[in-house]
Design goal:
Strand content: 15-25%
Number of strands: 17
Subcellular location: Nucleus
Shape: globular
Helix content: 10-25%
InterPro entries: p53-like_TF_DNA-bd_sf, T-box_DNA-bd, T-box_sf, TF_T-box, TF_T-box_CS
GO cellular component, one term: chromatin
GO molecular function: DNA-binding transcription factor activity, RNA polymerase II-specific; RNA polymerase II cis-regulatory region sequence-specific DNA binding
Radius of gyration: 21 Å
Number of helices: 11
Structural class: alpha+beta
Main location: nucleus
DNA sequence: TCCTCTAACACTTTTGAATCGC
DNA sequence: AGCGATTCAAAAGTGTTAGAGG
């Protein structure tokens, strides 16, 4: 079925340009940009700090997209999905299961600040979710993604044709995820190897690596603040020369534009949408045949109950062609990570068949907060 | 006692307003 | 006057650590 048919099914769905027919959702491809960095962390066991006031991810999510219609508007968003229904603890230099998972916090979806934007914009350059923040504060008012500490998650990216975040609900989704982006949410780093890796790669952590205060900042305070300032200025002058290397220009600029637009038009760009996990609006959809959803979420299989929910909205698109950009595709959700030896965990467990024993928990992760619509 | 979480810390990077020069 | 480049200060962001709390 074609997107235009969707519009007929859902009167509120914005009409796409006629030419969009030639760019079916099934052709959409997504690539994780900083794969090597993610894999470096993944080999050790990625940990993401979450704080009460929100913490950015590192490595951050950066993707590139292709196969979109250049003129059609799309909304791109990301949410976090629990890998399993257990919580972990760090013991004897490794992660161990510490019991059943906490009840899931309100599910939030972070919409890329540029949304909505035409396909040409999304395909022009890689998309950064740098400003997305993670928190463990279930009462958070900033719209950050709420996670539980000591639980494992992975980011899941969604693309849908929509002229406004408000109309996303009615559109067909294409969902992507990447096996190397699985991480454990923590309030303090547990694995010292992760700490070292972050300090090596994260520029903000240089304050602890350089200046001689690393690990002893409180006891060995350096008195040379002015020299540090000079160094900063020199670096800035240098970095100004190639602006494209400082940050993603269009991202930051359009981000600001998006913010001002959000004030004017109530745009939800850059904000997370919240869903009370106790809501079960799509519960009736969870009984769909499993083979109806396999092609929709690519790369990493997601929760069984989640996929049928979306597959109902767009069961007509063909599987995207095999692409080296993506991880091995499987129609099965991942098995329990701990059912696999630790050394295999990060390399192959997504290819393992899965027993669908976590369906109820995963079904708590719909895409949106219905209270927002 | 152990585990988890929080806040303060020192430092770097980012951001945006102000200033300067053409 | 307008524009782009540069400067500067404030804000934001980082990992570490001690201490609080369960």
């Amino acid at each position: 079925m074609h997107p235009t048919s969707d519009s007929r099914l859902n009167p509120n769905m914005p009409l796409s340009p006629p030419a969009a027919d030639s760019h079916q959702q099934g052709c959409v491809r997504m690539k994780l940009e900083n794969t090597d960095l993610w894999k470096s962390f993944d080999r050790i066991g990625t940990e993401m700090i979450i704080t009460k006031h929100g913490r950015r991810m590192f490595p951050h999510c950066s993707i590139s997209v292709s196969g979109l219609h250049p003129l059609a508007n799309y909304v791109i968003m990301v949410d976090m999905v629990p890998v399993d229904n257990v919580k972990y603890k760090w013991k004897k230099e490794q992660w161990e299961v510490a019991g059943k998972a906490e009840p899931q916090p309100p599910c939030r979806t972070y919409i890329h600040p540029d949304s909505p934007a035409p396909g040409s914009h999304w395909m022009k350059q890689s998309l950064s979710f740098l400003k997305m923040k993670l928190t463990n504060n279930t009462l958070d008012q900033h719209g950050y993604i709420i996670l539980h500490s000591m639980h494992r998650y992975y980011p899941r990216f969604h693309i849908t044709q929509a002229d406004s975040p408000y109309t996303v609900r009615w559109g067909p989704f294409q969902t992507f995820s990447f096996p190397e982006t699985v991480f454990t949410a923590v309030t303090a780093y547990q694995n010292s190897r992760i700490t070292k890796l972050k300090i090596d790669h994260n520029p903000f952590a240089k304050g602890f690596r350089e200046g001689g205060t690393h690990s002893h900042s409180k006891r060995c305070r350096s008195s040379g603040s002015p020299p540090a300032k000079r160094a900063t200025l020199q670096k800035r002058v240098i970095s100004r020369s190639p602006p494209c290397l400082q940050r993603m220009p269009s991202t930051s600029q359009s981000e600001e534009a998006g913010k001002s637009q959000s004030v004017k038009e109530g745009d939800l760009s850059g904000w997370a949408l919240e869903q009370d996990p106790t809501e079960s609006l799509h519960a009736e959809l969870l009984e769909l045949p499993e083979n109806d959803y396999g092609c929709e979420e690519q790369m990493v299989p997601a929760s069984v109950p989640y996929q049928p929910y979306r597959s109902l909205e767009y069961p007509r698109y063909a599987l995207p062609p095999n692409d080296t950009d993506v991880a091995p595709t499987s129609v099965h959700p991942p098995p329990h990570p701990l059912a696999i030896p630790e050394q295999q965990l990060h390399t192959s467990y997504y290819n393992h068949p899965h027993q669908h024993n976590h369906a109820a928990d995963w079904s708590q992760y719909p895409l949106f907060s219905y209270s927002c619509w």
